[in-house]
Design a protein that fits this description.
Structural class: mainly alpha
Shape: elongated
Low-confidence stretches: 181-202, 239-243, 313-325
Radius of gyration: 23 Å
Number of strands: 5
């Protein structure tokens, strides 16, 4: 069922604490699209898949299915990942090629949205997904795909915090696909949602979405770093005005207020604020509030005066103010 790749599945690895009835090797729940695989069963299946994958009489279809098992057990199986690229390129026509790409993207989505610690932060799998999106026909790159990519990356980032590979992939995808500007932000009582019913909106609503995510995960330094990149991209965009509701200064104030209200001492959050404070031209009153709040909140946890005066990492990224010029 998992090998069909027609719909993404949530995959759960089962260990000895979850024994299955005799004669049962896999648990599936079709309606919820969930599949549970005992670890020892997967290991035996991977051994059979390895033999099938390298068998001299194996067809491409057999090797493709075998590579799925190999990657499910070992996400860094580079030979299996590279074969899947060759399998896509061996398609008879473009329609068949796009179908194979869609199936492979669906398979990777199953791995990324599941509670698989190694898979969600696998450089091999994220690089493979990056290659697949490059081969995807531009005529079918619709806003819904961009929304799906964002959700997949954020789920992977929650499964494996500080997931630099997921965030770096999202940087690549959003900088190379203009459809991300069609995403809009709608706040609800339960949190932010992505919608695509206002296609003329610029990147500002997306920034609000990521800001909400970062405030919910204040210790995730990779998320805050991505938000800084988003602000730089928004300032470069002609669709965004500096006086907007999601200007860097407005976001700086909002994050500072949250940190002050909840007494947040997360280093990644305060490094984000310090980086913006060093890059932005802001009113003296706002800068004074930042220094006062930092001394009040961080006192006892670090040498605040020295930390405030230390420069941000040289060459890390271009100044937001410079990017407008």
């Amino acid at each position: 069922m998992l090998l069909a790749h027609e719909h993404p599945f949530q995959v759960e690895m089962l260990f000895e604490s979850h024994p299955l009835p005799e004669g049962t090797f896999v648990i599936t729940h079709v309606e919820d699209r969930c599949i549970g695989i005992p670890r020892h069963v997967l290991q035996r299946a991977a051994h059979a898949a390895w033999l099938a994958f390298f068998h001299e009489s194996a067809t491409h279809e057999d090797q493709f299915h075998a590579s799925s098992i190999l990657l499910l057990l070992n996400p860094e199986h580079l030979t299996a990942a590279n074969f899947r690229k060759r399998f896509v390129m061996a398609a008879r026509n473009n329609v068949e090629k796009q179908r194979r790409i869609s199936n492979d993207l669906c398979f990777l989505e199953s791995l990324f949205v599941s509670s698989l610690h190694r898979h969600t932060k696998s450089p091999t799998l994220w690089a493979h997904r990056k290659w697949l999106t490059r081969e995807l026909d531009s005529s079918i790159r619709v806003p819904e795909i961009s929304s799906s990519e964002i959700i997949i990356c954020l789920l992977a980032a929650e499964t494996h915090p500080k997931n630099v590979y997921a965030w770096q992939y999202l940087r690549y995808f959003m900088s190379n696909n203009l459809q991300w500007t069609c995403l809009s932000y709608a706040g609800t009582e339960k949190g932010p949602n992505l919608t695509n019913n206002q296609p003329n909106l610029g990147p500002e609503p997306v920034i609000a979405y990521f800001l909400a995510w970062c405030l919910q995960h204040p210790s995730d330094t990779s998320g805050w770093s991505f938000l800084l990149w988003m602000l730089t991209m928004a300032q470069k965009s002609s669709m965004t005005r500096y006086e907007s509701a999601q200007s860097p200064l407005t976001i700086f104030r909002e994050v500072l207020q949250k940190a002050k209200a909840f007494g947040l001492k997360n280093e990644s959050l305060w490094t984000f604020l310090r980086t913006l404070a060093n890059r932005l031209v802001m009113p003296i009153s706002v800068l004074a509030e930042f220094h006062h709040t930092a001394r009040e909140t961080l006192s006892g946890s670090r040498d605040v005066a020295r930390w405030l005066s230390s420069p941000t990492r040289a060459g890390a990224s271009q100044s937001i103010e410079d990017s407008k010029r």
